Amino acid sequence: MSVDFEALKRELNVCMGREPEEDLCYFSDNRAENCLGFAFRDYGLPRDCFNGEALVREAARLLEEEILKKTEILEILKKYAAASADTSDTRRAARVD
After folding, report:
1. 5-47 pLDDT per residue, tens
2. Do the Cβ atoms of 66 and 9 come closer than 8 Å?
3. HSE-CB for 64 with a 13 A CA cutoff
4. What is the Cα gyration radius of the chain?
5. Alpha-carbon distance 88 to 94, whole Å?
6. pTM
7. What pLDDT does 89 receive?
């Protein structure tokens, strides 16, 4: 099994809005969860400082944005995993014959 990690890194970087040759740095920023935290947690501030309905709407928007981006990342990873599996199957078949 052989994955072209350099090509994978470049494609993931581009997907995540960075330069292709940068070091890969992946993390989830949890913006949707932060919005919900302000809507439902007690931070020692009066509740009327927050518009809970607006925070819930923003959390939904941010989560949808995050899901779309993670789906794009998932498709890239699946593509490279499938290519690697195909290569392994071809090598295995070549040894059998």
Report:
1. 999 999 999 999 999 999 998 888 889 999 898 888 877 877 7
2. no
3. 6
4. 21
5. 10
6. 0.74
7. 63
Q: Give the SS3 label for residue 27.
A: coil
Q: Which amino acid type is present at position 17?
A: G
> What's the gap between Cα 69 and its chain centre?
5
> Which positions ≥6 away from 14 have C-beta within 8 Å?
20
Place of tokens 């709407």: 57
- The answer to whether 37 and 48 are in contact (CB under 8 A) is no
Please provide the DSSP assignment of 57-92 as one string.
Answer: HHHHHHHHHHHHHHHHHHHHHHHHHHHHHHHHHHHH
Report the length, in residues, of the chain.
Answer: 97
Token digits of residue 53: 């309905």
**Both tokens assigned to 28:** 């989830």
For 5, the token pair is 């990690």
The predicted-structure confidence for 73-88, as pLDDT tens digits, reads as follows 999 999 999 998 876 6
